[in-house]
Amino acid sequence: LPATDKAKPKKVSDTVYQLEIPDADKDVTGDYKVVVSDEEGQEAQSSCKLTVKVPALEFTKGLEDQTVDAGTTAILSVEVNSPPKEVKW
After folding, report:
1. Which of 16, 33, 39, 62 could bridge across to 47 with cysteines, CB 3.0–4.6 Å?
2. Phi, psi of 48, deg, nearest 5
3. Residue 14, phi then psi, degrees to nearest 5
4. 3 with 19: CB under 8 angstroms?
5. What pLDDT digit, counting tens, does each position of 38-76 carry?
């Protein structure tokens, strides 16, 4: 597997290898397999399932009551714990 933005194979030592997946999101959830081979062509393989848990969307800062003077700009603001798919006002 070549290095990409989503997966970076790494050799840690002569016997330890890793597949690093920075900023894992639900798109990288799935089955993974590694196959190693020696000079004589013998192979060994290992597989696993990677599940990325996405936190439930929630407000970290909700709307607050405001009073503004006529003719000024009113700004209503919220903050959430992860980027929402859609925002409706």
Report:
1. 33
2. -155, 165
3. -60, -25
4. no
5. 999 999 999 999 999 988 999 999 999 999 999 999 999
Spatial distance between the Cα atoms of 49 and 11, rounded to a whole number of angstroms: 21
Q: Name the DSSP letter for residue 70.
A: T
CB 43 within 8 A of CB 36: yes
- Beta strand 59-61 with 43-50: parallel, antiparallel or unpaired? unpaired
Nearest Cα residue to 35 out of 25, 50, 27, 45: 45
Single-letter amino acid code for the residue at 55:
P
* Torsion angles phi and psi, residue 9, rounded to 5: -65, 140
φ, ψ (nearest 5 deg) of residue 6 = -90, -25
- The pTM score is 0.65
Angle at 33 between CA 30 and CA 38, to 5 degrees: 170
